Amino acid sequence: MAVFSHNLFVMVKDTALLRTVRSYVVRAGRTTAAQVKALGEFQNQYGFKLEEIEKVNDLFVPAGPLHLEIGFGNSENIIHMTRCHPNNNYLGCEVHPPGLARALLAIDKLSLPNILVAGVDAIDLLTSISPEALDSVYIYFPDPWPKKRHNKRRLVNENFLSLLYLALKKSGIFRFASDDAVYAERVKDLIGNSTEWINLAGERKWSPRPNDRVLTRFEKRAGILKNKIFEITASPCL
């Protein structure tokens, strides 16, 4: 199926599948009283709504390079990036309430003006955002859905990459990291077989770990388990 976005055109094989098969299950995690309060009080101040995303540059004053982290977990990395790069602007999406609440609390405590977060689905966000709005997108340690019957729930697939291609600037960067070898190999192969993407490390090669990524809880856990971490860095083809 073809998806049109202003003057851009891209093939997405099954947009219905993108909408109906979610890459996550929101579980009833433990949420503290402070987190519940943050979700109630801070989302209007430090959050964004999908209907605002088409004109995303209007959300930040001043405007600047725009970066998105999908599934930011406990928010360690996105908060770190926001503090280290005050001239950049950051969007974050995290569907699990405790993680979203941690980000809201950190934004409020640190008075960070260049970040907005929301508990929205990444597919909905990428479908709504204006074309070529993003300078980079980070997906670090997403749920690998290792059981074969659950593979269809993996976030990064051919359809997702086509949506991401629309949202990224042609000079933009997509970074992916996982300690699941099967999932990472699949993503590397999808990029290698695509006419829309180029692997910046070289054809079907792994990238080095980015120096500016903070060591998150998920990456620390991978280290404790002695799992190898696979890094991918790609850019849309011109």
Structural class by SSE content = alpha/beta
CATH superfamily: Vaccinia Virus protein VP39
Strand order of the largest sheet: 5-4-3-6-7-9-8
Total helices: the number is 9
Kindly provide the name of the CATH class. Alpha Beta
Residue stretches low in confidence (pLDDT < 50, at least 5 long) are 1-11
Question: What secondary-structure arrangement, pairings included, does this model have?
Answer:
Blueprint: E1 2-5, E2 8-11, H1 15-20, H2 33-41, H3 43-46, E3 66-70, H4 76-84, E4 89-93, H5 97-110, E5 115-118, H6 122-128, E6 134-140, H7 158-167, E7 168-178, H8 181-193, E8 197-199, H9 217-224, E9 230-236
Parallel strand pairs: 3-4, 3-6, 4-5, 6-7
Antiparallel strand pairs: 1-2, 7-9, 8-9
